[in-house]
Structures are given as structure tokens and as C-alpha cells.
Amino acid sequence: MQLRSSFLPQDDGRCGWYGLLPPPTPGISVSGQINADWVVLGAGLAGMAAARRLAELLPNASIALVEARRAGFGAGGRNSGFMVDLPHDLNSHSYTSDKDADRRIIRLSRGGIDYMREIVTRERIECDWREQGKIHGAANGQGTRALEAFSRGLSDLDEPHRMLDAAAMKAVTGTDFYKAGLHAPGCVLVQPAALCRGLAGSLPKNVTLYEDSPVSQIHVGQPHRLVTANGTVTAPRLVLATNAYASAFGELGFKGRLLPVYTYGSLTRQLTAEELTRLGGEGSWGLIPADPLGTTVRRLASGRICIRNSFTYNPDVAATSRMLERAKRAHQKSFDVRFPMLPGVDFEYTWGGALCLSRNSGSAFGEIAPGVYSAVCCNGLGLTRSTIAGKLIAEYALGMDSELLRIMLEQPKPCRNPPEPLLGIGLRSSIAWKEWTAGIEL
Ligand SMILES: Cc1cc2nc3c(=O)[nH]c(=O)nc-3n(C[C@H](O)[C@H](O)[C@H](O)COP(=O)(O)OP(=O)(O)OC[C@H]3O[C@@H](n4cnc5c(N)ncnc54)[C@H](O)[C@@H]3O)c2cc1C
């Protein structure tokens, strides 16, 4: 079977997390004919976890990890840096679904955090790793009620958390924009691009990372052959870890089942000492909106504020300059309403990035053709879900068994989407409606 990629990863704006790092040291690209025992396509969180786990379990095997751009430049380094352990169902209105499903998701997410913590500690990866939890913030009565429902859901699950009143929210965030909050302690905050770069720089010796090597064709067979502009990689086993880009490879990549959705981030310039005093509050915090379509905010210990909001359905998995401009305007509006004590603070960076959702929050995990394994469809929570999916796909491919692996295999597969143009019309109207109902939370 020969598959041509119908689109390739694009630049999607200047990402602040990546831009604040020193320039990367030179990497290597695919050139000529490369043979390996395994090839992993995509060096995001899933791909790096899969390659690392394969190398840990098979120290004598050669593993080629192929990435279109530099490690940390893609969505793995573009996100808001919340390693979320609790249910976070973007399709629901309160982030939770049903109790048993929630418990299984928590097990998987914590498995991802545990694996990452072990790597970050052992390899001394400097990524501003903070075990400080996340705050959910509500800006009005509707949001407060959503948090109360979320709190009841967490109590049913025996998950620790505490409610915060408006004064407590101001003490943390410095603003009186939030009327109520909920603190959940298990979430870890990171600098995502630094995390990805650190992961790439600490891969086991039997993994070779090929960057700036977009794969334009996959020949599925024995062995599989991946074609780039300057060479090919051949291996008998392939792990697909391309998330939102997976559908570029047609049926092999779950075409017609995935929803490539973009969301956008902006990072302010460095605030001055006087501005930070005027803002007040704590030096570092991460806030998730009470409404899933609302605005995520992080205050960084380095003295900048990161805003994330706006979703667009981008079937060709690229953000246009118009989309980036629109997102930047939305970010400025959300910033100004939350931080009126900081007039005139603008954004130094604005970027977009691809999420991979499915209508039933299913995961594209397992063997999808002989010798082809998939760890795709993070449903918006790639820091934990893609990490654990990557680790587990390596274990699954090697015939291992574990409780976590069984939970992963029990997850539903992505269901089929309605055909275009119905899908596009439906999704775009659903996003517009949900953003409208999110109201001030946006
Ligand atoms: C603004 C924003 C905020 C977010 N906030 C959070 C958050 O706080 N917490 C959280 O958990 N998640 C968050 N996410 C989602 C998170 O970033 C993704 O879920 C995560 O990156 C998915 O990881 P992945 O490894 O599965 O996929 P990706 O990170 O997308 O990695 C896939 C890789 O495959 C490569 N690739 C694709 N096609 C090819 C090809 N043909 N050839 C070679 N390489 C290819 C891509 O370049 C990419 O690097 C956010 C996303 C965005 C955009």
C-alpha cells in the first residue's frame, strides 16, 4: 500500500515557549537510505515516549524517530503546559463524563505524569516542572455553578480539591475578575517547549532523531518505507505518532474519524517590576476556565502572562495569518478584561497549534495494519494522554500486558464523522455557539 501525505506540518505562528529558548543545536535530517528495526513517525510527546520506551525495552534495536520540524516546535511545545491528571472532556460542559470512564482516564493520565516525572528527574530536564496543581476559575454565576458541579463530580471520585471564593482568587491571580475557583492539586505545570527539547536531548543512544524531515509518502509493506525529500527510512515496524496530521495518510491515519482542531496562545512581553507589583497575586499559577471554551491563563515565574483561547476547525492542519490575527485580538480582549491594572501590555508572541479530537473522545491506539502501530488522538490532553499512549504502544507492540495497557485498549476508537461539507458546517457552528455561550469566560 502506497500512501501520499495530503498535507504536511506548517509553521503556525511564532510560539513564545519555543522563542524564549536559546536556538537549538544543529540536528540531523534524513539523508540517503536509512535502515532501522523500528521507525517512529512524529517527535511530539507520543512519538518521543514511544521511541524512548522501545529503546528501554529493546536496548539492542535501532529506532529511527522522524520529525518534520525541530523537536518542541510542534504542538508538543506549543501548548499551555498543563499536565492534567483529572477528567477533562472538551466535549462536555463540566469536563467530566461518567464515573468509571473518569476513573480510567485518571489512571492513564497519572501514568503519563509518573513516566514523565521519572524521565525529567533522571535526565535533569530543565522545563520549569511545577507540582502546584491547577485552578479552575469562574467569572460569573454560570461558571460558579459549573465549578460546583465539577466539585461534586470530584467528591464522588474521592479526588482532593478545594473551592476558592472571590477573595482567595484575587489573592492568587491579582485580579478581581474571578468570582470563584477550584484548586485541584494533581496537575503539573511545565514549560512545554523546554520539556520537548529536553526529552529530545536525552533520548537513549539507540534512538536516532531525524528532524526537519517531513515524510511525504509511506509505503506500507515488509519492510515499511518512509519517503522524505532527501532520503528514505526503511523498517519492518512503524509507529504512527502524528496526532492531528495522521489523517494526511488517508485510511491508514483514520481519515474521516479525526477532527483536526486548532487552538491559539499568546505570550506577553516581560512585565516590569512595577507592573508585577501593580498586578499583585502569586508569582506562578495556571488557570483553566470553568467553561471548556473559555480562556486559559498562566502567570509565569519569569514575569510574563500566557493566554490561550479560540478554536477553529482546520481540516488541512494549518493556521492562516488571518486566524492568527483574529486569535491575537481575542487574546488581547481577554487579557484587558482580566488585567485592567496592566493597560498597554501587548503580546510578543502569538501562535496556533493542532489538537486532535474525535467526536466520541476515542483514541486511535493499537495495530492498524500488519507491523503498523498507532498512538494518535490525544483529545486535547497530549501532555499526559499522548505520553502514556506513546509508552503503552511500545509495550503493546512487544506483546506486554498491564492494567494500564488494558485500560488503554478499552478506550473507544474514534467514531466516523459525517461527510463534508456537513462536518465543517456542523463543527464551525458548534464552536461558534459554545464560544458564544462561554460568554465572559472567554
Ligand atoms: C495552544 C495550545 C494549548 C494547549 N494546551 C494544552 C495543555 O495545557 N495541556 C495538554 O495536555 N495539551 C494541551 N494542548 C494539546 C497538546 O499540545 C497536544 O495534545 C499534544 O501536543 C499532542 O501530542 P502528540 O505527540 O500526540 O502530537 P503532536 O505534538 O502534534 O506531535 C506530532 C508530531 O508529528 C509530526 N509530524 C506530523 N506529520 C508528519 C510528517 N508527515 N512527517 C514528519 N513529521 C510529522 C509533527 O510535526 C509533530 O511534531 C494544547 C495545544 C495547543 C495548540
Mean pLDDT: 95
Bound molecules: flavin-adenine dinucleotide
CATH level 1 class label: Alpha Beta
Number of helices: 11
Oligomer, anyone?
single chain
Structural class: alpha/beta
The CATH superfamily is known as FAD/NAD(P)-binding domain
Overall, the morphology is globular
**What is the total domain count?**
1
CATH third-tier fold name = FAD/NAD(P)-binding domain
CATH architecture tag: 3-Layer(bba) Sandwich
> How much helical structure, as a percent, in the residues?
25-40%
Largest sheet: 8 strands, mixed
How far is it from the N-terminal to the C-terminal residue, by CA? 45 Å
The beta-strand count equals 21
Radius of gyration from the alpha-carbon trace, in angstroms: 21 Å
GO cellular component, one term: cytoplasm
Keywords: Oxidoreductase
Pfam family, one: DAO
GO molecular function: oxidoreductase activity
Description of the structure:
Strand 16 and strand 17 form a beta hairpin. The protein has one domain: FAD/NAD(P)-binding domain, CATH 3.50.50. The protein contains 11 helices and 21 strands. The radius of gyration is 21 Å and the shape is globular. With 442 residues, the protein is α/β, with parallel strands linked by helices. Helix 2 packs parallel to helix 9 (382-397) and helix 3 (99-122) crosses helix 9 (382-397). The chain has helices at residues 16-19, 45-57, 99-122, 141-156, 166-173, 192-201, 273-279, 321-338, 382-397, 403-410, 422-438; strands spanning 2-4, 32-35, 38-41, 63-66, 82-83, 134-138, 162-165, 180-184, 188-189, 207-210, 217-219, 224-228, 231-235, 237-240, 259-268, 285-289, 296-299, 305-313, 347-357, 364-369, 372-376. The structure holds flavin-adenine dinucleotide (FAD). Flavin-adenine dinucleotide is lined by residues 5, 8-9, 41-47, 66-69, 74-76, 78-82, 84, 214-215, 241-245, 263-265, 308, 353-355, 378, 380-384, 386.
